[in-house]
């Protein structure tokens, strides 16, 4: 009799969360299998990063890959536990700053954004690159960031291997230009 009660409880919980617009994480999410950088200090991520590549099944990205603009972001650690991300990207000819706050979500290197997006710092050498996994209602994506806009072939190969490991092939991998965009935009001085 305990099993039917458990199932009833879980189905009620699921219904309540769906009614609030929240989703339960998939028990078979590829993000659950991603190993994080256990010895990485968040403070090592502080500073300027450039978006080098993205592997994603996002239909907008596929349809507009010819319009990609160089994208830069600045990372701060305001409280020692969370990440404040300030992304600069061009939209309609103007540079825009998009601010996000990644709060800890369980194990080291795992975060959530506004409770609906999950983020995992999968692998990083804070002096040169970071491979970060994102999951939202649209699915999973893997992004390659660099301290410079150009990275070695070995790092790009590693990124492509990590993307393939979660089911994202080269045909859904897009690389960002190293020119133009908002590379020279300066982050806001206050958070």
Give an account of the 3D structure.
The chain has 191 residues and is α+β, with helices and mostly antiparallel strands. It has one domain: Calycin beta-barrel core domain (Lipocalin, Beta Barrel). Helices cover 19% and strands 35% of the residues. The protein is built from three helices and nine strands. It has an eight-stranded antiparallel barrel with strand order 1-2-3-4-5-6-7-8. It is globular, with a radius of gyration of 18 Å. It comes from Pavo cristatus. GO terms for molecular function: complement binding. Residues 1-21 form the signal peptide. Keywords: Signal. This is Complement C8 gamma chain.
Chart the SSEs and their pairings.
Layout (H helix, E strand, L loop, with lengths): L1 H18 L27 E10 L2 H5 L8 E5 L6 E9 L2 E11 L5 E4 L3 E9 L3 E8 L2 E8 L6 H13 L7 E3 L16
Antiparallel strand pairs: 1-2, 1-8, 1-9, 2-3, 3-4, 4-5, 5-6, 6-7, 7-8
Helical fraction equals 10-25%
Architecture (CATH level 2) name: Beta Barrel
Q: For the CA atoms, what is the radius of gyration? A: 18 Å
Biggest sheet strand order reads: 1-2-3-4-5-6-7-8
**How many structural domains does the protein architecture include?**
1
Distance between the termini: 53 Å
Assign the CATH superfamily. Calycin beta-barrel core domain
Instruction: State which percent range the strand residues make up.
Output: 35-45%
Shape summary: globular
Number of helices: 3
Largest sheet: 8 strands, antiparallel, barrel
């Amino acid at each position: 009799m305990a099993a039917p009660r458990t199932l009833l409880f879980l189905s009620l919980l699921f219904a309540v969360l769906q009614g609030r617009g929240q989703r339960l994480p998939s028990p078979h999410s590829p993000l659950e299998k991603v190993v994080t950088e256990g010895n990485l200090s968040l403070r090592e991520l502080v500073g300027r990063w450039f978006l080098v590549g993205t592997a994603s099944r996002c239909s907008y990205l596929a349809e507009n890959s010819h319009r990609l603009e160089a994208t830069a972001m600045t990372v701060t650690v305001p409280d020692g536990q969370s990440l404040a991300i300030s992304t600069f990207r061009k939209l309609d000819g103007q540079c825009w700053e998009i601010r996000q706050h990644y709060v800890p979500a369980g194990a080291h290197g795992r975060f959530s954004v506004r409770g609906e997006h999950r983020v995992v710092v999968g692998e990083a050498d804070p002096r040169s690159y970071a491979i970060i996994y994102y999951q939202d209602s649209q699915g999973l994506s893997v992004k390659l960031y660099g301290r410079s806009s150009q990275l070695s072939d070995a790092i790009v190969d590693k990124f492509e291997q990590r993307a393939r490991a979660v089911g994202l092939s080269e045909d859904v991998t897009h690389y960002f230009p190293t020119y133009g965009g908002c590379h020279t935009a300066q982050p806001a001085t206050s958070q």
